Amino acid sequence: MTSGWTADGFGAVAVAFERNFTEQGERGAGFAAYRDGQLVVDLWGGLARPDVPWAEDTVQLIFSGTKGLAAAAVLLLVERGVVALEAPLSKYWPEFGAAGKEAITVAEVLSHQARLPGTDFSKVDLLDHDAVAAQLAAQAPSDDPRAEFMYHATTWGWLLDELVRRTDGRPMGAFFADEFAAPLGLEVWIGLPEDLHSKASTMVAADGVLADPAEVDPLRQLLRNPLLVPGADEIWNSPQYRSAGLAAVGAFATARGMARFYASLLGEVDGVRVLRPETVELGRREIRRGIEPFWGSEMAYGAGFELKAAAAYLGAPADAFGHAGAGGSRHGAWPSRGISFSYLMNEVRVAAPDQRPLDLLAALAEATA
User: Fold this and answer.
1) How many Å apart are CA 222 and CA 232, to the nearest integer?
2) Any residues with CB less than 8 A from the CB of 260 and at least 6 apart, and which?
3) What DSSP element (H or E) covers 347?
4) Phi then psi for 204, rounded to 5 degrees?
5) Is the peptide bond preceding residue 94 cis, with omega within 30 degrees of 0?
6) Rounded CA gap, 342 and 259, in Å?
7) Is the pLDDT of residue 212 over 80?
8) Looking at the chain, which terminus has fewer C-beta neighbours within 10 angstroms, N or C?
9) Among residues 210, 324, 322, which one has the least CA distance to residue 266?
10) DSSP 8-state assignment for residue 103
11) How much is the average pLDDT of 37-49?
């Protein structure tokens, strides 16, 4: 049912991974971890597609796990002096200053304080970056007080992708590919190349994941996430979505690739490091913490990274940072232990808490205590 290997001392992680299949009905998944720049866990198993086993090179959509990659891209522009976190986004994207948004800063966008948690997708194609960006530029910020600190599930990506395009010229996906994936040898793509589509798993929505916004609370309608409505699973698995490169929710990766990415934020990996240590520390510096109204629980954000919060869904260590993905995936690092990790899967669930990643991270924490 499962394949891969673990280094000495990490056998309990393999046991927890196997139990996800035998006791929690896991469909298909991968889990990997690095310690001090070296791969120590590389596991995969289950089905990638009906009757097709998950292989070593199966790639998986990670939804909001993408945000950690995009955050690093913005931080690289900060490191180079091209972007300032405290500057208004409208400094780099003048049209964004319309409708009372001229003072919204880059840091506020990164930390989900832009008051643009949703947009009207009935008026625009979510795979048309230019159209969505133009709509967000013209849109007034929400006057709902809950929107002052509300997770920008999809809109976050268009806002920051446009920042990268305006200051660098490349779309977010191309920027990440050139500046991170290529030098680090990552199996990670914001926008999957067409010749790799055959390696992508099929995403499946468990019961309760996809809901009609008209039948749920007003918070969900305010968020307006077009990827969690009935029929959205057809979008997830379409060639168009795989290629689109949505900067908030459109990355594909192996667990090995994501764990390697976060390892590179902690130190050199095979002699390569992209972001300076002080830049990573800047990204991990807390900007906002509080009760996020959509989740109804404590959330904390740095410059795009999720930070340790009460739920401990990125693991037990107090310095945990990274980003989760809708339906269960987890990607991040524990600097004090030199550990980076990634769990990704193809069955999206709404269980709270989802024990699949929690059990894996608990086993990883025990192995590295």
Assistant:
1) 18
2) 32, 34, 39, 184, 185, 186, 187, 269, 340
3) strand 347-348
4) -130, 135
5) no
6) 5
7) no
8) C
9) 322
10) T
11) 98
